[in-house]
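> forwarded from #structure-qc
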């Protein structure tokens, strides 16, 4: 080999590739954990947003609490001043109403329908469960008319207000 020839030898390239692979093996699990933590923080924020929207809906329309679909609204209805109604309250983003946000399934199983002035909905339950447990998040979250966000670290879907109230509140 001519001493004036420039470039890298095969051994040098293999060493660089091995170092890159070692760094990737260390960084990727940390990146995934950070993404899950961010998704969980977003889910908690969504539960707080829904609680605020429910209280606003209740005091604005005097129908009690509303299903998740009624807390949002179309872009056209929400863009017009005075376009919000009890059917489209324009209180939450449509990403939340769509049911999936930041790797979490968002739902309000209670109430199932809009209340009436004579029979307002006095309770609500909002839940957030990971779309893919262990990948998009590990815990489930819930809140109800008490306004307390609660966490189930096992990731079990919370189906009832009683099950939600049995969980520990977030600190």
């Amino acid at each position: 080999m001519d001493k004036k020839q420039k470039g890298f030898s095969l051994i040098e390239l293999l060493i660089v590739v091995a170092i890159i692979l070692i760094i990737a093996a260390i960084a990727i699990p940390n990146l995934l954990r950070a993404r899950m933590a961010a998704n969980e923080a977003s889910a908690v924020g969504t539960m707080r947003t829904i609680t605020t929207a429910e209280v606003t809906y209740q005091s604005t329309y005097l129908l009690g609490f509303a299903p998740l679909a009624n807390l949002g609204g179309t872009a056209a209805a929400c863009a017009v001043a005075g376009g919000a109604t009890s059917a489209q309250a324009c209180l939450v983003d449509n990403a939340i109403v769509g049911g999936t946000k930041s790797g979490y399934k968002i739902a309000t199983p209670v109430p199932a329908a809009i209340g009436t002035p004579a029979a307002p909905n006095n309770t609500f339950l909002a839940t957030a469960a990971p779309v893919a447990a262990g990948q998009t998040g590990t815990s489930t979250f819930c809140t109800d008319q008490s306004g307390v966000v609660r966490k189930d670290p096992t990731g079990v879907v919370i189906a009832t207000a009683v099950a939600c109230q049995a969980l520990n509140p977030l600190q």
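QC bot note: Residues 129 and 140 are 5 Å apart (CA to CA). The chain has a mean pLDDT of 93.
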